[in-house]
Task: structure prediction
Amino acid sequence: MTRTSDETTPDIEVHQLSVWYGQTPALRNVNLNISAGQILAIIGPSGCGKSTFLRVLNRMIERFSDVRVEGTVRVGSFNVLDDHVDVTQLRRAVGMVFQHPNPFPMTIFDNVAYGPRIFGMRSSTQLRKTVEDSLKQAALWDEVRGKLRRGAGTLSGGQQQRLCIARALAVNPRVLLLDEPTASLDPVSAAKIEELIVQLKSQYTMVIVTHNLQQAARVSDLVAFFEQGRLIEMGNTQEMFTAPREKRTEEFLTGRFD
Amino acid sequence: MSKSDLSPKTLKPIAQGRSAHYVMAGIGVAAMLALLSVVLPLAVQGLPRLNMDFLFKPPRELGGGGIGPEILNTLIMVGLSQCISLPLAIIIAIYRVEYDHIRHLARWFDQGLQIVLSLPTMVIGLIVVDVAIVRWHWPISVESGILVLSLINWPFAVFLTVQVLQRIPDEWREASRALGASRWQTITRLILPVAWADIIELTGLTVARLMGETAALIYTAGLNVTSRFAFSAPGETVAVHLWYIRTEGLMPDADQVAAATGLVLLLLVIAVLWVSQKFAEWVKNANL
Amino acid sequence: MKIDKVMDRVTHTVFALFLVVWLSVAGIIVWGTWRFISHYGFLSPILSSRWNPLAGQFGLWPFILGSLTVTVLAVVIAFPGSLALSVLGSRILQGIWRRYFVRLLMVFVSVPSVLYGWWGLIVIVPWVRRLSGTSGYGMLSASVVLGLMILPTFSILSLEAIRQVPESYVEGSVGLGATEDQTLWRIILPAARPRLVQAALIAVARGLGETIAVQMVIGGQIGGPGLLHPAATLTTQLLTDLPFLPPGVPGHDVLDFMAFDLMVLMTIIVWLQMRIGSWRYE
Ligand SMILES: Nc1ncnc2c1ncn2[C@@H]1O[C@H](COP(=O)(O)OP(=O)(O)OP(=O)(O)O)[C@@H](O)[C@H]1O
Ligand SMILES: [Mg+2]
Result:
């Protein structure tokens, strides 16, 4: 299941993106590119537009009423903000994991099989294989094998979050969006998720929003710092943490932020 | 790269895979129209007859009468039975929610309440006939009607008030108790002020329900009215009158009178709902 | 505190009154039932079809069957409309439209049942008469009227059930690429199912208990098999026979027995509702 990561064509390309909720701006003139297989960590103070940015990438933003946008966003071959984009295929290609684990009220198996079934997979052997592969990829298989018929609600919070990751992986996405995936978990579960993200590196292009700066430093290749809807600075993770170019970034990273 | 430099466009959800929603919307609109088809003919047929004479004159079997006494009976019976049952219901609800005496019996209480609540009102009418009218020799009258309506309303109002009180977070109670307030100080200073608006709005529902009650009143409040109001006189209500005209009455203009009576009933109900809602809003805003 | 002392006493008194009143109501019904059963037996009146109370024949089967048939048919008739209205009000309409829609439904919930009966008399009964060539009075008309009458209640409760489904389930589903339709069928409705079933049960209870709207269009006698002949239900028969069987008349106890049957049916429904309330996915 390895993917060829073509380093030359950016997998995500955001050009002059602005977003408003009604009259309130949430993002302003954001430009950034992410190459295939890279992990971008987005950091910034609360309310700076991180989640908004993430929700633009798979067009989940359209679910809010009165959202206005400007600019272009390209993910792979999808022109995301185009009025005729195939959203189901887009969201199939761009998986999303939320801050609070949100397994469906069904069995573990049905949770993971949900996506493949939606896209027409009927054969039970195929489904079983997909579910197993996805759970293995999400490092959950060993903990749930033999319990696939149990309700997803019986799992611990961390396991539920990995289940959600497995559910997203089951439809073969190219991109994974993770919005504070460890924020609601205990440190041990959070560490497991983090480990998993590192393992999945290079197979998927990932964008992860996090409030945990150490986490960003540990997992990401690139870091983008947002403030009040603007992309203040983006760069190589190591450079960002050791020698940020912008004063605001440095203040944020060193905790001298107000 | 093509880029629209026009003013930012509104992002519209892409309509993909929604046919079932369109079908649902279609069926829903049809169902709404079916419901409207109940009230519209009422307005069309009843409106020509709706005038001052109709609203204030007594009914006449030979045609041309009004429903004045029926309206008065309805207002008095519903009003008084609310005055009796609502305070009693609020107290029971307070006992259920604010006291912990029946905590381990709460499930039983709730189930019993549900059963009582879903008893057909006709059964309550039967009981009142058995007990009040036959055993206690109450006349078929306004007062028997008030008794029936109070009994019908009591568990219903308890149920609704319990739900209102249960929505108030426990932390508030604890905070109040932690400040040294006693149980009833908490209830009168914190719980009830918060709950009033909702209780008022739901009381509108219960009033509307009582106004429409028919089956239980036929043999308790009766099918007649007298020219002068008295508690011991027969107390036909608007709803009962409508039933009577449509099933037993022999008036030559029955169709029109029935429609106009129904229209009055409907307008009363809508007025009650509207007033209770406005009043509840006003209370809510006054609280802030 | 002084107010507490006083109010404690008031509260206890009122609660005692509540218990006394409702236990007596149940007691009266049970007592009458007991007298009836000790004369005529329990099962044979339920299973017999001969109804002539003045001659001592108390076959309740037609009424029980009438109650169940009319109610079940009414719920079946109301179901598609309720589902559609609840989806419309919870997942299609937005903002102010949704608010006014719910408000309108609430008005219909409060429309007195006698008005639905009136509508049945001037619209449904003539229709059925024209289509079938019968009198038009019967279980079919009653079911349609009752179906329309419980439609608003059923819809509001279903709407509430659907609204309780966490938006995070919806986001999870849509985020995987599921369409709105797929999300509705595979996530939202299954997640709301326990509450939807509860809503249906409340609709059933309302239908079983309804008297006036049904009485106006069902015809009132036992007219023969099928949905198109005049029929009766437990509640409508209570209404029509109460004047002929006043307390003291030997047959009066059968009315208590009918009330008892209704109470048993309601108890079963309440019990089912509580069972379903504790359904949870393990
Ligand atoms: N649905 C919405 N409607 C209106 N305004 C919104 C909506 N969602 C977010 N906003 C506003 O847009 C701004 C950006 O929100 P966003 O959720 O993207 O921030 P965030 O960086 O993810 O914050 P956090 O770290 O708290 O999650 C905030 O000011 C927020 O109040
Ligand atoms: Mg966020």
Observations:
- DSSP finds ten helices and ten strands in chain A.
- The first strand of chain A starts at residue 10 and ends at 21.
- The pocket of adenosine-5'-triphosphate (ligand 1) is lined by residues A 21, 26, 46-52, 64 (CB under 6 Å).
- The CA atoms of residues 11 and 141 of chain A lie 30 Å apart.
